Amino acid sequence: MKQFNILLLSLFLFTNVWSQQRYLEEVFPNISETKNVKFSTQVPEPKKGGGWYESVLLGTPVNAKEHDTRDRNLYMDIFQPFGDNNTKRPVFIVCFGGGFVFGDRTMGDIRALAIQMAKRGYVTAAIDYRLGMNIFDEGAALRAVYRALQDGRSAIRYFRANAEALKIDPNQIFIGGHSAGAFIALQNAYLDKESERPAATRNTSYRWGAWLGSRRYNLPDQGCLDCAGDNRHVSGKANAVVSLAGAVGFLEHIEGSNDIPNIMFHSKDDIVVSYNAAQPFNNFSFLVVGFDLPVAYGSNPVNNRAQQVNAPTQFYSYNKRGHDVHVDGLINSALGRGNLHSDIVPRIAQYLYDTRLKPAGYNISGASVVNLMSENTHTYTFDASEGAEVLWELEGGKILQQSGNEVTIRWNASGEHRLKATPIGTNDAKGTTVSVPVLVLGNETTLDASLQMYPNPSARTLKVKLTEEDIAQIQAVIYNERGQAMYQGMLKKQGDQFNINILNLPTGKYYLKIQQGESVLHKTFLKD
Known about the structure:
Elements: H1 2-19, E1 31-47, H2 52-56, E2 65-81, E3 89-95, H3 108-119, E4 123-127, H4 138-161, H5 163-166, E5 168-178, H6 180-190, E6 204-208, E7 215-219, E8 240-244, E9 247-248, E10 262-267, E11 277-278, E12 296-298, H7 299-309, E13 313-318, H8 330-334, H9 344-357, E14 361-365, E15 369-371, E16 377-384, E17 389-394, E18 397-403, E19 406-411, E20 415-424, E21 434-441, E22 445-446, E23 451-454, E24 461-466, E25 473-479, E26 485-492, E27 498-501, E28 508-516, E29 519-527
Parallel strand pairs: 3-4, 3-5, 5-8, 8-10, 10-13, 15-21, 22-29
Antiparallel strand pairs: 1-2, 2-4, 6-7, 9-12, 11-12, 14-16, 16-19, 17-20, 18-19, 20-21, 23-24, 24-27, 25-26, 25-28, 28-29
Helix pairs in contact: 4-6
């Protein structure tokens, strides 16, 4: 009985996935969670600097000591769709917001985003990253962002290095987040070369301490993009990113069509991370003596730059959502609850599906005009993404054999039919269905007359004459070699013939069908 119940559950899950669209809808009602998965070992995090501002802000490390660090392990919580047997699943990593000085992976909005994407068929993870920012030194602040960027890349490397065990596709790993978490995502997209590292991340120095007792400290090189954390033998570069109220430090890092896809959400009334370009927190920075953060370029200039250089991006702009562009309600936002706006996850899911997940399918090649009286068995080939399976659909015929992207069909009914092919990726994502017409000739009742056409080839007017003189009106259809109807209409006899204007038809071979009632005649002609 237990085995029977398991079988029923498997059948339910399989039917549910295919009746809905995986990755776009919540096809899995339940998810499983694995907590406290270590992905980065003994990475240096700056210690708190203390002082008046940190005490007022309940100990948040806004005066972090870049010169004095402690080693820390980083953990993630992983969510997976329950009952999923696919072994090539995409990954979506989510990073919390908090100005690089507070927050963790348990925040409600981050968990909600991870869970909703997992129910759509993703393997997802809510991650921690190193905190600590010195808001009194522009260079030190850049080090905080770069440190978190390294941690985000370390999380990506964990999945890429353990792809087989985790049953994920190492070439479909995405990262996103809110606020500081969105900074991590956007830097992953655009700060992706060693030459682009800010000078402050290399061997440098800064002044730290109270005004009278301050001194200059040497700071170590933070290392390359993938030089912090574990699994350094693989790349930490994501395959697409998601930004909720994020920004970049350097617009010139957005280079062109080879950049990875990026989808952004931002509200014009954001007073924490500017929609345009400004220092973060600039609306209340005047309250902090010595405040010195670098200018950050928000989603609007990022989008403008991307459009200029043809970098792949999509931008959703809002007017009155504030900094928490993804969370519905100020109270929910303040309490860290996961009450996401209803449009956020569907838009993320659709963008990632369209740009990264669904397999491509371009064209079906094969006979588009078939004569049942001669050869009615034909092979068709679908030009689809490598490795994709093909779902074929047709009427008026029977599939005899299918292998890879080829299918052999025996046509058995005359008429105008359509042959359809849908590519399906190894991750179970469906591509766009491609449909071509197939004109099957041969089983109709033959019109009791013979047909003459002239001139053939013809350039302007095709003249048709029937030997049955009492036929005064006919229906004519002209098909191209792909079986597409290029002309159709009722014709009345003019003298002893019917005239068809073919001036606008492209040069090529065509099929003319003359029909009166249920009886038809077919003949080919050439257009000059």
